[in-house]
Amino acid sequence: MAKKPKKQSGGTPATVALTASGTPYTLHAYEHDPSAPSYGEEAAEALGVTPDRVFKTLLADVDGELTVAMVPVSGSLDLKALATAVGGKRATMADPAAAERSTGYVLGGISPLGQRKKLRTVLDASASAHTTICISAGRRGLEVELSPGDLTTLTAAVLAPIGRA
Question: Is residue 115 within 8 Å of 105, Cβ to Cβ?
Fold first, then answer.
């Protein structure tokens, strides 16, 4: 019976990937407000967790290659640090349409899990200070909580200081 609510709330490529991997996680659904100025801060408030435990998934173009970056919603992405983390020279934010096309998700609901294409991924090193963190589960109003170690393993992420407070 415990699986039934998870199935009703989930069903995204991210939750399918998590379930298939056998990774322990908790799914959190909340009513998304389309007028919210920040998807991540809205999620933190709705879930009652500090914004440094909710990570946003961003896509950047590093030397012509799309790269996934995950940083706390309480801060921003340091593009120079991201480029350095993957051995690149220059990073810019990816075109939103290219990000949606590549991942199969819509902005505000991009998950680092279950993306259409395997992309280089970097998780901000601050994640390791927490037992669990929350990331998008693949749609607005749906977050998944899991350990940073499991997220790193599932996404083959590099841990690096890519966030700015």
Answer: yes
